[in-house]
Design brief:
195 residues; mainly alpha; 2 domains; 83% helix
Length: 195
């Protein structure tokens, strides 16, 4: 049995002793009648419901900490959003507006790379798959360099690295074409020897 329940059962008689008097409601009615009839409802409500609310400093600090946390979260979110928008803006600027010579070089080397890819596929359609991962990595590196081009003071070094990246891709494709041509040539020589 709960100690509180036991206490209430033991002292039931004492609780019943202190009942309100019969004239309690009469006193309440008399007080209501004495209220000024001219008093507005707002004044009556204000007089009857006025309570003081006390808030401890600890509670105020907690509320302030939560508010600060929310404001900080919003600020960080906005900062990240603006950063992403700025990155998008950087990548959408055409290269010919930044460096027309670099744009021309990119167009030239890109055309060369496309030619070499087609030449390689004509020799062996599956050959490109063997080292496509390396070319993809070079593509990603090139895109990163392109993004850094606007944000770096030394644009010439970035432009040189970009051109070197394109040359490396062409060199990889040339080597692969060379290897495949030698392989096919040897294959034809072996076939003619055995005929």
């Amino acid at each position: 049995m709960d100690p509180l329940e036991k206490f209430i059962r033991d002292n039931k008689a004492a609780f019943d002793q202190h009942e309100p008097s019969d004239d309690l409601w009469e006193d309440i009615e008399a007080n209501l009648d004495t209220l000024d009839d001219d008093a507005s409802e707002e004044e009556i409500i204000k007089n009857t419901t006025s309570r003081s609310i006390t808030i401890s400093y600890r509670t105020l600090w907690r509320v302030a900490a939560v508010a600060l946390l929310l404001l900080s979260s919003v600020a960080v979110w906005q900062y990240v959003e603006r950063g992403q928008q700025a990155n998008t803006a950087v990548t959408t600027v055409p290269l010919n507006e930044i460096d027309p010579e670099l744009a021309d070089a990119e167009a030239y080397y890109t055309a060369q790379i496309q030619e070499k890819r087609e030449e390689l596929i004509a020799i062996d359609p599956d050959a490109l798959k063997a080292f496509d991962g390396e070319l993809h990595e070079l593509d990603e590196l090139y895109d990163n360099l392109k993004e850094k081009l606007l944000s770096t003071a030394d644009q010439e070094a970035i432009a040189t690295a970009m051109i070197e990246n394109l040359r490396i891709r062409i060199e990889i494709l040339n080597r692969q074409i060379e290897i495949l041509e030698r392989y096919q040539q040897k294959k034809q020589e072996n076939e003619t020897q055995y005929l």
